[in-house]
Each structure stands twice: as C-alpha cells, then as structure tokens.
Amino acid sequence: MASALVEAPWPADILERMERAVEKVQDRLMRATSALDAARVPYAVAGGNAVAAWVSKIDAGAVRNTRDVDILLSRVNFEHAKAALEKAGFVYRHVRGLDIFRDGPEALVRDSVHVLFASEKLTGEELVANPAIDESERGEAFQVLTLEALVRTKLNAWRLKDQVHLQDMLDVGLIDETWLGKYPPDLRARLQYILDNPER
C-alpha cells in the first residue's frame, strides 16, 4: 500500500522550496560567521560548508548542498562566542552531548549552528582530535579550515556523508594519492580506501 506522502501531489512551488532550503543554510552560515567576526572571536567553518567552499574553488558545479552549519571554536572563547551568537538571534542549547545554537527560539534542532571544540575529541573514541583554530585560513567570506585539516576531520569522522565529501574532493582534484603521507596510519588507510573506490 503506497504511503500518503507518495500519493500527495507535487507542490506547485517545489523549486522555490528547494531554493529556500539552500538559502536558509547559507544565511545561517553568514549570520553566524559575521557575528563571530564582528566580536573578534577566532573560529573556522568546518563540515559540509567547508567542503563546499573548497570544492567551489575548483568547480562550482560540483558543490553539494548541506543542511549543517559546523563551526570550530576554542573552548576558552566559548562564552564570548555564545554572547556574539545570541546577540545575532541564535539560541544556545546543549542537546545529547552537543553544543548547538538554534536559529531562533522556535527553530528545530536541525536548523542550528553546531559547535566543534578545537583540539578536542567529541566522544573520546575518534582516532584524532579536532583541528586547532590556527589550522584555518581566510576565505572570501569567512574563516575556513585548511584543506589538510578538513580532510583529516572527514577521515576521522568517517560517516557515509564524510566519505561522500572525500569523494567529492577527490573528483575535483583537491586530493590524490600524494596526500597519503600527510596522515597517521589509521587515517591513511581510510584515505586509501577512498582512492581505491572512487566510484563507490
């Protein structure tokens, strides 16, 4: 029996909905980074938006949309960052061991800025710690993880979406077999897997 969702007609504004979804994430990213810049809080954009920034330098058509906004912060600067983000309308919450800033009091958890703490492990089970804040560089609009640090985070997290991000970076030539020597053995093995399975 088909579900009601499958049987429902396509909304007439489906393209507008798709565009708005992308714009909301970009707006959240820019408001968060602008607030941190204005408050002079050191940070770096990480996650899917960092991947998109690097991929777009080579091939804008290969950029993959993401719903996540991940920001790397130093724990010593967290209260300063919290004040800056709350001033910009974000609402702090600690949810299931994660520090997030919801995009307004009524926003869903998925519509948030997610905080990663520099030089720390999220659960203690990761192979390596998060990058340091100074492993970043200034992009056109915000501070972003260096490519080497970003690839390390993706190899470290190793979820399906991280593997897809690594494949995207491989596809546009940002990484190749010469990168194997940049990482410790466990991460190197994961990168080798990506190199050996480019069409997976």
- Gross morphology is globular
Low-confidence stretches: none
**What Rg is obtained from the alpha carbons, in whole angstroms?**
18 Å
Order of helices and strands: HHEHEHEEEEEHHH
CATH topology-level fold name of the domain at 15-146: Beta Polymerase, domain 2
Proportion in β-strands: 15-25%
First CA to last CA: what distance?
32 Å
Helix content: 40-55%
Oligomer: single chain
Name the CATH class of the domain at 15-146.
Answer: Alpha Beta
Number of strands: 7
Mean pLDDT across every amino acid position: 93
Q: Describe it for me?
A:
The chain is of the alpha+beta class. It has a domain at 15-146: 2-Layer Sandwich (Beta Polymerase, domain 2), CATH 3.30.460. The chain contains seven helices and seven strands; from the N terminus they run ααβαβαβββββααα. The chain has helices at 4-7, 14-38, 47-58, 78-87, 147-157, 160-171, 185-196; strands at 43-46, 69-73, 91-95, 98-102, 112-117, 136-138, 143-145. It has a five-stranded mixed sheet with strand order 1-2-5-4-3. The model has no long low-confidence stretch (mean pLDDT 93).
